[in-house]
Design a protein that fits this description.
The protein is about 35% helix and about 25% strand. By secondary structure, the protein is of the alpha+beta class. The chain has one domain (about 1-145). Strands 1-5-4-3-2 form a 5-stranded antiparallel β-sheet. It is globular, with a radius of gyration of 16 Å.
Length: about 160
């Protein structure tokens, strides 16, 4: 019985995360902000694990997940690139004890007045032309954020 309840809880959490990601995409910029590094770097880079900048970015996503899905998570980061006040993050949220994994999250972050903000969290639904898996998603993202450096994207 416990295995069945655990599987149902994971499915519900994944559904909640997917719905939240879609809501974020449709809702535009989110109000959550955290401090960013002081200066913008013209070169693309990845903040190293343990750095204040990386922590600020992941804490922002952690707060968003907590606010929308009521779960505390840690991340396995697959992609994190920063340039000229923009960052693209792709990470796999997991429960703090590592027992549960959730759907991956991608986000475009933008530095505004010294703080990182979530500019866009794309939905992850399959077969949805507006979601991250669609062939034209990144072209649309570039049109919505023309000043965003393309080198941060996972292309």
């Amino acid at each position: 019985m416990k295995k069945k309840e655990g599987a149902i809880a994971v499915m519900k959490t994944r559904q909640i995360i997917a719905c939240g990601l879609l809501m974020a995409m449709l809702g535009g910029t989110l109000p959550l902000v955290v401090p960013a590094a002081a200066a913008s770097d013209p070169e693309v880079y990845t903040p190293p694990p343990g750095s204040a900048e990386r922590k600020a970015m992941l804490d922002l996503l952690r707060e968003w997940i907590k606010k929308h899905h009521y779960v505390d998570v840690i991340f396995v980061v697959w992609h994190l690139k920063v340039q000229d006040g923009y960052a693209w993050v792709n990470a796999m949220p997991r429960s703090k004890d590592g027992a549960s994994g959730y759907e991956d999250i991608s986000a475009l972050l933008k530095k505004d007045k010294g703080f990182w903000k979530i500019a866009e969290i794309p939905c992850g639904e399959e077969d949805n032309p507006d979601c991250i898996g669609a062939p034209g998603y990144f072209d649309g993202l570039k049109k919505r954020f023309p000043e965003m450096p393309e080198d941060i994207l996972p292309l």
